[in-house]
Structure formats: structure tokens, C-alpha cells
Design a protein that fits this description.
The complex is a heterodimer of chains A (62) and B (525). Chain A has 62 residues and is an alpha+beta fold. In chain A, 29% of the residues lie in helices and 16% in strands. Chain A has a two-stranded parallel sheet. In chain A, helix 1 links the parallel strand 1 (18-22) and strand 2 (37-41). Chain B contains 20 helices and 19 strands. Chain B has helices spanning 15-26, 41-49, 55-59, 74-88, 104-110, 123-135, 149-161, 199-212, 234-245, 261-272, 289-292, 301-311, 325-336, 352-366, 398-401, 412-423, 444-461, 482-491, 500-512, 517-524; strands at residues 2-8, 31-38, 65-71, 116-119, 139-142, 166-167, 173-176, 179-182, 189-196, 216-221, 251-256, 278-282, 296-297, 344-349, 370-371, 391-394, 427-435, 468-473, 494-497. In chain B, strands 15-16-14-17-18-19 form a 6-stranded parallel sheet, sandwiched between helices. In chain B, strands 10-9-11-12-13 form a 5-stranded parallel sheet, with helices on both faces. Classes of the chains: A alpha+beta (62), B alpha/beta (525). Chains A and B meet through strand 1, helix 1, strand 2 and helix 2 of A and helix 1, helix 5, strand 4, helix 6 and strand 8 of B. Strand 1 (18-22) of chain A pairs parallel with strand 4 (116-119) of chain B.
Chain lengths: 62, 525
């Protein structure tokens, strides 16, 4: 196995999970029922779901 | 009968929430059918097949929502519309409680030390959200499908650079630190660690390990595209390295459909350097001895579970891949009840890898197996085409899930297909998989039993007997209850097998009888 680079000692397998859930809300409910700290984001498509508008806004840095 | 169709412009809600609302409305008095869906192409087609025809549906864009309700009378329809508006409106918060965050940034103010983002937004927005999470130093579990290979490569390179893990896109399940992400089962803690490019493959192997009495340390999903040539197994290699360092992990299992050749070479090279025993199940892939070295090959998912358990120190009393003699007799008896026209296995799967595994088992027995996700490109059929000969349909393929909940939750398309197969005089046996656990439907047997009974009676009316074979992926810890689910299916006349590989072989035996008995027994022994 390759040597680890310094600064990589911390990884997700050695930490307690703390989750931000973006999208399907039942995934957050399932994590809460497993005693995981979770914050659910009430996500809506940006730019009203208009992909072209979104690309334009991203180009403008908005 | 009266019908109302409403298109709500630029209105979004996730597919699972919408499915629950559709189900609630359908159960109201006087309502014959109801659907509240995002206006994806698939959903517009399903609505039209259900008899909802309106020019507004054709004009609706992907980011619009369609409400379609059919009622016996106007009063029932009005009541349903009022209830639907109530269910669609945001839940009112008690006074003093803050509104939920609407962005990752706001969420991180509430949970500043978050280390994982679980992302399941529609595919076209997935990269944007995942990239933001990586930039904030979060690992990512990316459930979203319909993300391009280029976007996947970009995301994974950023993750790798930052020493973060990006599981996905199209990642159905992972079990990290004994917590299930996405769809997955309640599995005992133990010493077997998995890295899997297949969600249901991971579920099948972990539940079979659990049933033997052993458990798992970690189960890292990579997403189905990870072992493509473009992505080059970035996440599987990261996962392997993490498990190598993980003290609890004593045995490693790798699961995937056949990888791209160069990627397989790269992944196996890293695996061969492991100090821990590694079981490799690349379904249907015949890995050369030189490439394998000390790695342990497994042909089927249940084989992978069995070998991993043996390496972890427990020899299963009965390997799941070996079919008991008495079951072979039952299958041969079922075969005798078939009409002459009934010749073919019809596999209808919610698990993509289970579909593929069945194909790898049926192909050598029958030569040709048709599928929307075939082993051989020449055997590809559209998912909604009528069946011909032996067929395995992956009902969780992207063509069936755009803007719809996965078939492990939403059984409607699979139920329609079961009835379609029942009417086909050439269908010898229907083979299905049933997944329990987090994320799945709360009562899969409750969904399937009425439709299986109907399918059997449709066949009976046409003078045929229709066998149904299933495997249930689950453990006694899953909230649906493994024993009660299996009993409900069994009471409906479904033959329940321990694993998908076994269910597939039994189905083949039912379809073809003694002609292939020797091949099945040869495989099992």
C-alpha cells in the first residue's frame, strides 16, 4: 500500500459522522433514527430549475 | 368520472415526498387514481399510459410539477385537491422554531463540524452541490444519478486531492462507522470490510454475512461508474487504502460489475499489495490467475459472502450458493405444472446488480438472456419493450427513475410489469428481488402480495400455473421485519430462496426442468 501523505491521518472512518443532508428528507430521518447528528437542508433548484439561467449566473459569479 | 390536471410552474419537491403525497391522495374516498410528480419525460409518459391526457402535460418542463387526479365525482375531486394543497405546503413550524436551512452554508452554521454531505438532488444539480461540499472539506455520499462521467471524474479528482471520500454518483448504499447511508440493512459489527461499486451487491453480501453470524467493519459504496475507464477506480482504490489502515477490518471484499480492463488492472494491483486477505467479485469477469495472484475470486455475491466468512474464521454450515436437494425437487415439481408454452424466466429486479448477477447465471444455461442492462450488447432490449425469451429487467435503471422514487420504494412500475408478464403465455416463472432496510418501502410484501395474487389468478384464468420465486435481502434487525416479510410472500405462494443466485438457479430449473438439472447441481456442488 502507498505511504500516507502527511495531513491525511484524519479520515471519515475514524470520525463520528456528522451529516448535512441535501435532497431526500427521509435520508435525514433514517440517520436521526441511528443517532447520527444531521441537519437537513430544505433544498430547491437554484434559478427556479432553469439550467441555462443557472449557468449564466455561475458565469457571472452570482 | 371526472379528471383534473394542474401544472405548477417551477415547483420542486423530492420524488419520495411526492410519492407519499400521491399515495395519500389515492386513498381518499372517491379517488380512482392520483399522481403528483415532477414533469420528467418518464413521468409524463407514465401519466399518459394511466389515461391522463392533456396538452398542458406535454408543455410542462422538467422543473414543473404535475398534479393529476381522477375521481368518481366533483365533490371527491375538490376534497382531494384541498388535501393535496395542504400536503404540498411547507409544514408550519411551532412559534420560536427557526425555518430549516436552505443551503449547505446555512446548514454548516448549525453543524460547523459536519464531516459528510449526503446529496440526493436531481442529477443536473448534483455536481454543483457536491463541489460546494468538497470545498468546505466534507466527504460526500452522492446518491444522485444522471451525473455525467466527466463530472464524476472532476469531482473525484477534487476529493482525492483533498483527502476526502466521494461515494457516488449513483451510490445507493454505504455503511460507514456502522451507520447506514441511503439504502442499507442493519448489519452486525464485525471484521469484514467491503468496497462496492454496486449498491444492491453490497446489500446482498452484507446481509448474507450477517445471516452466517458474522459482521462488517465498513462498507464503502463507490457508485456504479467508478470502475469505468474514465474514472479509473479512484474511489475503490481510496476505499481499499482506508480499509488497509482500518484496524477493525481483517478481511476485504471488492464488488463490482465487470470493470474496464485497464481499471481492473489498476485496482487489482493495489489489492494484491494488501496485507489482508481480499475477496474479489467482479460479476461475470473471468480474472486471469496472474492478475489474481493471492486474491480470492468469487463468482457470485453469495460466493463472495461465503469466502469472506471462511477467511474471517467461520465456515458457514450451509453455503447460500448450494441449493438444498429438497428445493431442487420442489422446482422440478413446479416445472411439471407448466403449460407447454411456458418456457422462459422473467426476472424483474429493483437491484441492478442482482439483475446482472442473474444474467451471468442464466446466460451459460440458456445462451441468450435479454435485458435493458445486458451482459452482451446484442441482447439489449428497451426496458419498456414486451419480453421475448429469457428476460432480466433492471427496474432501477436510469430510464425508470428520472423524477421517480427508486423501485425499492415505489413499486408501481414493477407491479405493472409483473401483470404484463403474467399475461404472456411464454412466461414460465417470475423472478424478483425484495430489499428491506433503511430507504426501502415500509412494507414491500404488502405491495407485492396483492399483485402476485392477481398475476397468479390472471394466469389461472388463461389455464396456466404461474410460479414466482424471490430472494429477500434483509436481516431481522431491519424495521420491515425479515421473518414477517418472508412469511407474507410465502403465504402468497412465492418460493423464497436465501440468495439471488440461488433464486435464479431455481427459476431456471422451474423453466427448463430436468434438462438443466445437472448443470444446476454441478454449479452448486
Amino acid at each position: 500500500m502507498p505511504e500516507k501523505k502527511s495531513g491525511e491521518e484524519k479520515n471519515i472512518l475514524t470520525e463520528t459522522l456528522k451529516v448535512v443532508n441535501i435532497g431526500i428528507s427521509t435520508f435525514a430521518d433514517d440517520l436521526r433514527s441511528q443517532n447520527v447528528d444531521v441537519v437537513h437542508v430544505d433544498w430547491k433548484p437554484p434559478a427556479g430549475g432553469d439550467i441555462e439561467m443557472l449557468k449564466l449566473l455561475e458565469k457571472l459569479g452570482l | 368520472m371526472t379528471t383534473r390536471i394542474i401544472v405548477k410552474k417551477s415547483t420542486y419537491m423530492d420524488s419520495i415526498s411526492l410519492m407519499k403525497i400521491s399515495n395519500s391522495i389515492s386513498k381518499l374516498p372517491g379517488i380512482t387514481q392520483a399522481a403528483v410528480v415532477m414533469a420528467t419525460e418518464l413521468n409524463r409518459r407514465v401519466l399518459s399510459e394511466a389515461g391522463f391526457v392533456d396538452a398542458a402535460i406535454g408543455r410542462a418542463a422538467n422543473n414543473d410539477m404535475i398534479v393529476a387526479i381522477e375521481a368518481k365525482d366533483a365533490a371527491s375531486l375538490d376534497a382531494a385537491l384541498t388535501e393535496m394543497e395542504r400536503l404540498l405546503s411547507p409544514t408550519e413550524k411551532p412559534a420560536g422554531e427557526k425555518a430549516p436551512p436552505t443551503s449547505l452554508e446555512e446548514a454548516l452554521e448549525l453543524l460547523p463540524d459536519a464531516n459528510l454531505a449526503v446529496i440526493s438532488v436531481p442529477g443536473q444539480f448534483a455536481k454543483r452541490e457536491a463541489m460546494k461540499a468538497l470545498a468546505r472539506g466534507l466527504n460526500v455520499f452522492l446518491f444522485s444519478s444522471n451525473v455525467s462521467r466527466e463530472e464524476e471524474v472532476e469531482l473525484k479528482n477534487v476529493a482525492k486531492e483533498k483527502g476526502l471520500l466521494l461515494m457516488g454518483p449513483d451510490c445507493g448504499t454505504s455503511i460507514i462507522n456502522h451507520k447506514v447511508l441511503g439504502f442499507g440493512n442493519t448489519i452486525r459489527e464485525g471484521t469484514i470490510g467491503l468496497v462496492s461499486a454496486s449498491g444492491t451487491g453490497l446489500q446482498e453480501v452484507t446481509t448474507l454475512i450477517h445471516k452466517v453470524g458474522l459482521g462488517i467493519s465498513q462498507a464503502i459504496g463507490t457508485g456504479g461508474g467508478d470502475l469505468s475507464e474514465e474514472v479509473g477506480g479512484i474511489t475503490m482504490i481510496q476505499g481499499l487504502e482506508l480499509l488497509e489502515e482500518d484496524e477493525q477490518t481483517k478481511v476485504i471484499v471488492l464488488i463490482s460489475k465487470p470493470p474496464a480492463p485497464k481499471t481492473m488492472e489498476k485496482v487489482l494491483e493495489v489489492a494484491r499489495r494488501s496485507r489482508k486477505p481480499v475477496v474479489v467479485n467482479f460479476l461475470g469477469e473471468d480474472i486471469s490467475p496472474s492478475m489474481l495472484g493471492k486474491l480470492k475470486p468469487a463468482n457470485t455475491l453469495d460466493d463472495a459472502a461465503r469466502i469472506a466468512c471462511e477467511l474471517a474464521g467461520v465456515k458457514p454450515a450451509v453455503a447460500a450458493s448450494i441449493i438444498p436437494r429438497e428445493t431442487i425437487s420442489v422446482a422440478l415439481e413446479e416445472h411439471k405444472k407448466l403449460a407447454r408454452s411456458q418456457q422462459y424466466v422473467r426476472g424483474l429486479f429493483s437491484g441492478g446488480t442482482l439483475c446482472y448477477e442473474s444474467e451471468t447465471i442464466l446466460q451459460p444455461l440458456f445462451g441468450e438472456v435479454f435485458s435493458n442492462a445486458p451482459i452482451k450488447p446484442e441482447n439489449k432490449i428497451p426496458g419498456d419493450a414486451p419480453s421475448k425469451k429469457h428476460v432480466c429487467i433492471d427496474m432501477g435503471a436510469e430510464e425508470f427513475v428520472e423524477g421517480r422514487a427508486h423501485p425499492m420504494i415505489d413499486f408501481s412500475l414493477r407491479k405493472m410489469r409483473i401483470l404484463q408478464e403474467a399475461k404472456d403465455p411464454e412466461t414460465a416463472v417470475i423472478l424478483i428481488d425484495v430489499e428491506l432496510g433503511y430507504g426501502s418501502n415500509e412494507d414491500p410484501a404488502g405491495q407485492l402480495v396483492p399483485v402476485i395474487q392477481k398475476a397468479k389468478s390472471l394466469a389461472k384464468e388463461a389455464g396456466r400455473y404461474l410460479p414466482v420465486v424471490a430472494s429477500v435481502v434483509g436481516t431481522e434487525g431491519d424495521f420491515q421485519g425479515l421473518a414477517s416479510q418472508e412469511k407474507a410472500l410465502s403465504d402468497a405462494g412465492v418460493l423464497i430462496m436465501t440468495s439471488n443466485a440461488q433464486a435464479t438457479q431455481v427459476s431456471a430449473l422451474i423453466a427448463s426442468g430436468e434438462k438443466i438439472e445437472a448443470a444446476i447441481i454441478g454449479r452448486s456442488d
